[in-house]
Each structure stands twice: as structure tokens, then as C-alpha cells.
Amino acid sequence: MSLLILTSFHGLTALHYFYSMYYDLCVIGEYPKEVREIFGGTPVNDRYQLPLKGREVFLTYWNLILQAIYFTVCLVNDFFGTNEVSPRSTPLIRKLKDYMLAAFAFPVALNVGVTFWTLMAIDRELVFPKALDAVFPGWLNHVMHTNIVIFMLLEICTSFRQYPSRKYGLTGLGIFMACYLVWLHIIRHFGGIWVYPVLDVLNLPQRILFFVVSLAFSVGLYLLGEFFNSIIWTKELKQLKTGTTSKKIK
């Protein structure tokens, strides 16, 4: 793929994510009271105050910010880094780009997309109550839950990267998911509610199992991304490995 097309793809994708955040924050603004009550914007008890507007609590929104940052990094790399398979000296921005896709952008995007649409098919009230229909336009919902998967698959197919060591990559993903898990419990402690209604219908052992399965699913998606990358870029990875081996022999 030509650099012009690749740069245009990265730029337009980043722009559409930033515009979506702008629309959500500035055009939609504060969610109606009934929506905030569902998503933690209004305290459930008198002891604690939880100053949230309903969007900061979701992994979906964390992921939207993550995708916007990732594609911005891709754009910066297009101009100031390199997309070569085996550059003489790999710029820091290229190393950051490669690591971000492997550890964060790919597994989190697919986690959000697959989990959301699966639960929507089972019972939409568990993840996207009908109260949101009057607030959330359909196109914005697809940006947050559909486009993130489509554009990430396009990215992994059109831009070469070398995956980090599995230990290094999974450590980053584990830290990210652990931070979000802590955030869920902070909201539960200070707000008195679970962000996702599905957690309300689970008892403690079931919630623990839910979190363990979610983490295992994220690890599986990391390995899936690594597998896709190795299949799509088999020739380039072999060239890179051969080149590295030759350098060592010399």
C-alpha cells in the first residue's frame, strides 16, 4: 500500500474518532438524569458523591480514546517514523506504534466490539438500555462498537508491525485491564452501583468468574492478533528473521 493511502487512512480514522468524542462531549453533553442514574452519574446513596456524566465509566469510552491515540501515533509515524519492514534504525515512534497495537489497540477493540454485540443479541438492557436511544445516535454507537473492529482489522492487514515478546505484550494488556477492573470497583464503592447492569444479576462467585473469563478472553484476543499478524505478514517476518540471523552471523 502506498504511503499516501496509508497516511490518509490513519489520518481520517483518527479524525473520525476525535470527532465522535467531540460530538459525545459537546453536542450530546450531559446525559439525561435517567441515563446517568443507570450509568453512575447520580449517587445512589447519601454518603458518597460520584461526579461522573455517564461515559467515563465504560471500557467502550476508554477504548475510543485509546483508538484515537493509536491512530494519531500511526499518523505521526507515517510522517516522522518509518513503515519499512526492517529499517536500519527503528525510530521510537515506530516501536510505540507496534507495541500499542499488539498490547492495547487490537485486543481491547475486539473485546469491546465482540462483547457488546454478543450481549446486545442476548439482552440489550444489560449493555445498552433503551433509555439511550433518545440520546445516542445510531452512527455514534457504531463508531464505538463496530468501526473500532473494522478499522483495527484494516490496520493489521495494511500496516506491518513486529509483535513484542509475548511476555512483554501480555504484561501491558494485563496492566490495562487491571486498571479498568480497579476503576469498576471504585465506582461500585463510591457510587453504590455496578457500571454494567449484567454485574447486578451475578452473585460474588459468578462475578469473579465473569472477570476471570473476561481477562482470559482478552488474552485470547492478544494471541489472535499475534496469529493474524504472523499469517498476513509471513513473508515479511521471514525476511526480517533471516536478516537478523545474517547480521548475527556476520
Topology diagram in text:
Elements: H1 3-28, H2 33-39, H3 59-80, H4 92-123, H5 138-158, H6 166-191, H7 197-200, H8 204-232, H9 234-249
Helix pairs in contact: 1-3, 1-5, 3-4, 4-5, 4-6, 4-8, 6-8
Please tally the helical runs, counting DSSP H or I stretches of 4 or more residues. Answer: 9
Secondary structure class reads: mainly alpha
Largest sheet: none
Oligomer: single chain
**Distance between the terminal alpha carbons, to the nearest Å?**
32 Å
Kindly estimate the percentage of residues that lie in beta strands according to DSSP.
under 5%
SSE order: HHHHHHHHH
Helix content: over 70%
Mean pLDDT: 86
Instruction: Report the C-alpha radius of gyration, rounded.
Output: 20 Å
Query: Low-confidence segments, ≥5 residues, pLDDT <50?
Result: 40-52, 245-250
Tally the beta strands.
0
Shape: globular
